[in-house]
Please model this.
Amino acid sequence: MAIDSNFDLAALGLRSAEETGQPKKKELGQEDFLRLMITQFRNQDPFKPMENGEFLGQLAQFSSVAGLSDLKNSFADLSASLMSTQTLQASSLLGRSVLVETDTVQLGAGGTVNGAVELDSSAGRVVVQVVDDTGAVVRRLELGTQPAGMVNFTWDGMTDSGVQAGAGEYTLVAQTVNNGEAAAAPTLIEATVESVTLGAAGRGLALSVSGLGEVDVSSVRQIS
Model:
């Protein structure tokens, strides 16, 4: 409902926010809208009653305001319900092994790394290189010819020279080779889910996995 800037609240028996000591509102709520409309009916000129069209228009505006408020509340309830359901579902992942899309991995002392390469199509040759923090390739894993899909691999923690690699962070670089042409392929690491948390605003649920820290649920590609 459009409100005239010269609208006299005192003439309608209403008091301003300053007079009531209440903080100002930036916009009218449903109760304010209805109260003003009823007050307008009571104080209208009997010789110039409100036209049917204007009356119906104000009712339509009131209905729209009420409908939007109800819709907002419904979406809030739905969002809370979905988040609760997702949290319960994600809690079932505790202790489970998941494949997370990442190109970095933490190698423990004397440990091994299990992972996979995701192929959109078959490849004549698949190679995974393990690179240390200096950029040097410490191990090449030849996976041979592979069909499309997940290609599992295991790095036993040994270097190409046959010695145990030091504990720390390593980068995995996967490539497919077809007819002499190389192309990059995404890598995934197998890790154990340690906890489930509510991520920051807009992020939703997050998983804390061993060796990788916090990751989004969307980055999990396989659960076992």
